[in-house]
Amino acid sequence: MRFIPSREDVDPVGDPYRTGNVLQWEAVESVGPRQVLVVDSRNDTSAASAGDMLVTGAMKRGAVGFVTDGAFRDGAAIAALGFPAYARATTATTRPAAFHVADLNVPIACADVAVYPGDILVGDRDGVIVVPRSLAAEIAEPSVEQERLEAWLHQRVRDGEPLWGTYPPSAETLKEYEAWKAAHQEHQAHQNQEARI
Question: What is the pTM of this model?
């Protein structure tokens, strides 16, 4: 969803249904399962990109996230949903005070990152990244492997290993990791075989 600045003759403050600018509702009503609603708010937090009603609506339609480079209203209510919702701020100001919904399902900028319909978004407590769909298969396994390696390295640091040679890993540490991984995979394969018997 792409916002542009509102204008008084097009977006009088009040009920958006009366202005005819209901694309925001259409976005929520048409979002599908496993989709993420991404909003280009021009990095502007002066008004809300959405509130808990719209975020809840998207969640109930199967969306798996709601992302904006602007603000949300009803921050506490959205947080209580347990739904992945990302914004730069929380505000009490409603969307029509500053924004007009100009487009749906077009390439946008969100937090100065290009987002195209069909891109894959991955989020955690630290933020969100955008993965072009054409690169997803290519980077999926290396990404999982990097997470696996970092978890192993983190455990070593928790066990008291010095940072030098552990993080970033030296050639010797990487060799130890490969040996651990091979043993772990063999153990996992043995457990899977026992489960089938």
Answer: 0.84
